[in-house]
Design brief:
Elements: E1 5-15, H1 19-30, E2 36-39, E3 43-44, E4 49-50, E5 61-71, E6 75-84, E7 91-98, H2 102-120, E8 128-135, E9 141-151
Parallel strand pairs: 1-4, 2-5
Antiparallel strand pairs: 1-9, 3-7, 5-9, 6-7, 6-8
Length: about 150
């Protein structure tokens, strides 16, 4: 199984009932709430093209690189960074999440993807980022997600 395409999406939500419900609402905002998500690691195959977000069939087994953060009364962030090698066209993805602001997450993501490229001997082209940040109100549950979604 080699993915032919991918898209990147994200969402955030605040709820009063539970962290599970805020996660579900964040997935809905990201447009992937109807999928059965299977998390995978961080490789974009050669010739796998980035595309616009696509509505997937209800119940589809969907492979994703997922970054997720949850919290109560804190600032939370989840983000992804991705880039392709200029020579081979194969790419890498890094994720970061936690109780931090957007600038901190972006700095962590940048450091991670550059280290991954160095380990693999890749010369990265355009490095892209997708980050969601949320200040969760007291007494509420918050969730942020960022996902790179593979299409087969």
């Amino acid at each position: 199984m080699i993915a032919k395409a991918f898209f990147v999406t994200s969402g955030k939500a605040v709820g009063k009932v539970s962290s599970l419900n805020s996660f579900d609402m964040a997935l809905k905002e990201a447009g992937i709430e109807q999928c059965n998500l299977v998390t995978v690691s961080s490789i974009i195959p050669p010739n796998c093209e980035e595309t616009e977000p696509t509505k997937l069939p209800v119940g589809a087994i969907t492979y994703v690189v997922l970054s997720r953060a949850e919290g109560k009364g804190k600032t939370i962030s989840a983000g992804l960074t991705w880039a392709k090698d200029v020579e081979t066209g194969y790419g890498i993805v890094a994720e970061a999440s936690g109780n931090m602001d957007k600038a901190t997450v972006k700095a962590k993501l940048d450091k991670k993807i550059r280290e991954m490229a160095k380990i693999r001997g890749l010369k990265l082209g355009d490095i892209k980022f997708r980050i969601e940040t949320l200040k969760v109100p007291p007494g509420s549950y918050g969730c942020v997600v960022a996902a790179l979604v593979y299409i087969f």
